[in-house]
Amino acid sequence: MESTPEQIIRQVEQLLEQNEYQEINTILNDKLLSQYNNALLYAWRAKAYIEVGDLEKVFIYAQKAIDINPKSAVGYFMRGVVWSERKEYDKAIADFNEVIQLDPNIDKAYSNRGLAWSNKGENDKAFADYNEAIRVNSNYTIAYSNRGTIWFRRGEYDKAFADYNKAIELNPRYALAYSNRGSVWVNKKEYTAALADYNKAIELKQDEPDTYFNRGVVWSRTGEYDKALADYSEAIRLEPSYATAYMNKGDLLASRKEYNEAIIYYKRFVELINNPEDYYHQVALSKIEELKFKIENAWYDELDTIVDNIKQLLLFDDPCLTHYTSLSGAQAMILENSAFRLSEGAFLNDTSEGRELFRYLSFESTKRAAADETLEELFAERPFIGSFVADNKHNDLTLWRMYGKEAQAEARGCALTVYKTDFIDNIKKKISPIDITPGVQPRNEEQFTFYNVAYLSKETFIVPGKSNIIISQLNNLMIDLRDRVSVLTEEQSVNVVKLLNDIAYLFKSSEYQYENEVRLVVQGVGFVKKIDKKFIPPRVYIELIDIVPALNKITLGPKVERADEWAAAFNYHIKAQRKDREEKVDIIISHLPFK
Fold first, then answer.
1. Burial 297-336 (b: 16+ CB within 10 A, else e)
2. Which helix (H) or strand (E) holds 517?
3. CA gap 74, 40 in Å, rounded
4. Alpha carbon distance 13, 5 (integer Å)
5. pTM score of the predicted model
6. Residue 445 host element (H or E)
7. For the chain, what percent of residues have pLDDT higher than 70?
8. Is the dihedral of CA 105, 109, 115, 121 positive or negative?
C-alpha cells in the first residue's frame, strides 16, 4: 500500500530525531516529492541538506516549499538560515519575521533572527530575540550561549558567565559554550581556568578555529610562545583565511625577533583584509616597513628593544583613571555623545611637553656647530596623547586649578573617571569588524595602552606608585638609552626621532610630580586626522569613542554654578544610554574649599 504524505512526514520526523539525514534524502527523492507536491516534505528535504552542509540544495528545496505553500513556516526558516550563511542578514531577518508571524512559538526562529541581528551589530535587538527564545523554551542551550555573547560584548562578564554556565548545564557537550566561557575567564585574568575551558571545547569539537586562536592568545599572555604559535598555526590550517591569526602570529614572531617570518604573516594578513581603510590593514603595513628597517639596521633594533622595555615598566595597572576637562567638554562628550579626542603631541597645553626626555638624553636630530644656526630641522610626526590621572586624584585642588577649568575659570570644570578596560575594549570594538564569538586580544596591545608618567629629578626618574625595584630598572634603562643615542650618526639620529617620540610624552619634570599623571599614547596610523581650524595655529586631533559606556563616575568642580542641575542632566542621560547595565555612574559635586 502506498504511504500517505502524513505517514511519510511522521517517518521523516523520526529520522530527523535520529540524525539520519542521508536516509531522509533517500526517502524524499525528487520523484516522491514531485508526486506528492507537499510543502512540508520539501522543507524537510531542505533540513536534511542543511545538516550535511549543502546550502545550494537547501535553498532550492526551501524555495519550493514556499512556492507550494506561502505559509510554510519551515520553508521560510530554512531559507532564512541560508541567507544568514550567505551573510545576507536583512533577507534572513525578513524570513525569520515570516516564521514568527506564522508561529510565534518557534524558539529557533527567535534565536536565528537574534544571530542575524548580532551579525549586523544590532545587539539590543539580538538580546531581545534571545530573551524571547528562552521564554518559549527555557531549556534552549544555544539561546543562553548566544545571549551570553551579547552580555560579553557589553562588558557584563558576570552575566555572560552565568549564561554560559547555564548552557553547559543544559548540554555538557556544547563546545561553543566552553570556548566562550574561556574568553570570560581571560577577561578576569584567570588564565588557568580559561585554558581548561578551551581544552574542553577542543576535546568536544576539534575543528573550531576560534578556540585554537583564543587559546593561542592565552598561551602568548602566559609566556608559552611555542604553544601559542602552534595554536595560531592550527587556526590557520582549519581556516586558511583567518586574517587575525596571521596578524597575531606575525606579532609573536616579531617579538621573538624572527622578522623575515613575521613579514610573511603580516603580508598575508594585508592580502586577506584587502582594505586600505581598515585600521589593522594600515598597522600591518606600518609593521612591515618597520621590520624591514630593523633587519637592515641592528642598531635601531637594539634601541627599539630598550624603548619597549621602558614602556613595559611604565604600564598603568589600576582599573580606573580620571580625565579632567572643561564643563563644556563634558557636556559634548556626555550629553551630545561626541567622541573622546586625542590631540597630536605638538598641541598639548604645556609647550615643554615631550622635551624632558630629549634634554635628559642631550639628543638633537640635527648635529649643528655652535656657530651655525642655519641648519634645517626635519618635521617628524608625533603620537596622539590622552592625559589622565590616577583615580585617587579625581577631586584634587591643584588639578582643579590647573586642568579643571571652564573658559579659563579655575575649578569650573569636570573630572570624568572611566574603567580602563572598558575604555580600551570600546576602542577595539570601534576599529575591528563585528565578531560573533567572544574573543581575546593578543599579548601585544601597545596600540592602546595607558602608561604612568615618570618625573625627572636631578638625573633620576621617579614614578609615583611604582616599587623601588621598578624605578631602579627604569633608571638603568634610561642610562643605557642615553649612552646609545649619544654615539648615533646624524643620519641615525633623524631615523630614531619617531621611536623616541613614542615615549617622549611619558616623561616630565619633577615639579609636576604631584599630578600622578597617566597617559594614553596612540600612534596616528589607521586614524583619520582631523584639523580644528578655529585655533591659530590649527590643531590636529583624532577621535576615539563615545565615553559614556566606559564611565565610572563624574566629579563636578567646586566652582561649578548650579551643579545640581548639571548633575541631573548627566544622570538621566546616562541612565537612558546605559539602561541595560546595572552599574550606576556616581555623580559627585565637589565641595573642596577652593579659593
1. eeebbebbebbebbbebbebeeebbbbbbbbebbbbbbbe
2. strand 517-522
3. 7
4. 12
5. 0.82
6. none
7. 93
8. negative
Residues whose CB falls within 8 Å of the CB of residue 109, separated by 6 or more in sequence, listed in order:
73, 77, 80, 96, 99, 100, 103
Instruction: Round to whole Å and give the CA distance between 7 and 19.
Output: 18
DSSP for 447-469 reads TS-EEEPEEEETTEEE-TTS-HH
Give the three cell numbers for residue 274: 584587502
Tens of pLDDT, residue by residue over 268-292, are 999 998 888 888 888 899 999 999 9
* 307: its cell numbers: 624603548
> Which of 143, 137, 138, 136 has its CA nearest to residue 114?
143
Q: Which residue has the cell 524524499?
A: 28
Span 349-403, pLDDT tens digits: 666 677 889 999 998 765 544 445 555 667 777 888 889 999 999 999 989 988 8
CA distance 322 to 392: 9
Going from the C-alpha of 267 to that of each of 251, 284, 286, 291, the distances in angstroms are: 12, 8, 11, 12
Contact criterion met (CB below 8 Å) for 311 and 451: yes
Distance CA 210, CA 87 (A): 19
The answer, yes or no, to whether residue 27 has pLDDT greater than 90, is no
CA distance 584 to 567: 13
Q: Which pLDDT score, from 0 to 100, does residue 563 have? A: 93
pLDDT confidence bin for 157, thresholds 50/70/90: confident
Cα 482 → chain centroid: 36
436, pLDDT greater than 50: no
Pairing, β 517-522 against β 384-390: antiparallel
Cell readout for 586 is: 556616581
What is the signed CA dihedral for 229, 235, 237, 239, rounded to 10 degrees?
Answer: -150
Minimal CA–CA distance to 554: which of 354, 330, 299, 250? 330
- Which burial class, exposed, middle or buried, applies to 68 when counting CB atoms under 10 A from its CB (0-12, 13-18, 19+)? middle
Has residue 433 got a pLDDT over 60?
no
